[in-house]
Here is the input.
Amino acid sequence: MIRAYKFLMRPTAGQEIALGEMLRDHRSLYNGALQERRDAYRHVSRTSVGYAAQSAQLKDIRAFDPDRQGRWSFSSQQATLRRLDKAFAAFFRRIGSGGKPGYPRFRGANRFDTVEFPRDGDGCRWNSTPHDPATRVRLQGVGHVKVNRHRPVVGKVKTVSVKREGRKWFVVLATERTRPEPLPATGSAVGIDMGIANFLADSDGGFVPNPRHARTAAARIEAAQQALGRCERGSKRRRKAARKVADLHRKVRRRRLDHAHKTALDLVRAHDLIAHEDLGIRNMSAAPAPRPVPGRPGAFLTNGAAAKAGLNRSINDAGWGVFLTILRAKAESAGRAVIAVDPRHTSRTCPACGHVAKENRPVQEKFRCVACGHTAHADTVGALNVLRAGLVRREAPPAQREAPLS
Here is the structure.
């Protein structure tokens, strides 16, 4: 089982400069390798240059520029070249699937924030004992950097990454460990219905309010962005204003993650089985297609784009995808089951008689069955139907259980 740990680093002034230089030189290597691939394809009879050829050049590059490229870990530079190779592999995969290609682009100073060390002990060393508060990570070319280890690291450290977020530095550890002991069984199963008015409703009639982190911080972010727009480009004042905008967005992201972790942990501790809708979040938050006026080039009919944009902001603010990812990870560690079910008609099906009709949900929050008169909160009805579908899938044969939903 692979798990990740993220800790705040506390470098000295000299170490912080060295960390910045490490990012700069790895970014230079990334951009140089990208330029070589572009030039080889455009000017040398459409020749493709791969990772193996570029990795073989590393020894000569380090010897040619020992002050910049030669001072860093060889394996971390190989990881940077693999990162570019993965970007090209994703580019060709999107072309093959008919998606938007998204050709790999050069990285500016603010778009390259991570350096990976593929193996602990090769260019880096995680130095920690269970009860030692003075934890450090040793990085080649930087030294021993203090780390604020706020929780113990369980398992064998496999990879180490250094990441810059704004003016702070973090170390991210990927560890491998045996499957932990599952939590004691509770005998409880629950279905959850994700929403906008409430973050989620469960089949027991409970609700988790939607904190709306981005909407709460919208006024401050808007004021900070307006102040940024008034600054002269390239000025010290503009850089300071840009950092403030980034800090506000980062704070919203941290709050959203914190809420997702706490909500998922409560569900995992209380229930053996958690069923949720298999939501196509990307499709749900897509912009509506334009509606051209027949016979009038350049003219379009109203397509509800403004209203849809507001709904998309609310969906993204809720962070359903992040929450479900965290829920699955915590459930795996705790020995719980998480089942995704087909979301169709979950909020239109009567849990009492099984009647399905659009008219069963006259407004957003109310459910009233037109066949039997059963009334309840619409989100609770959806959660009940999700739970029933999850229980059916759990009892189904493995081949049927793992079949993709239509």
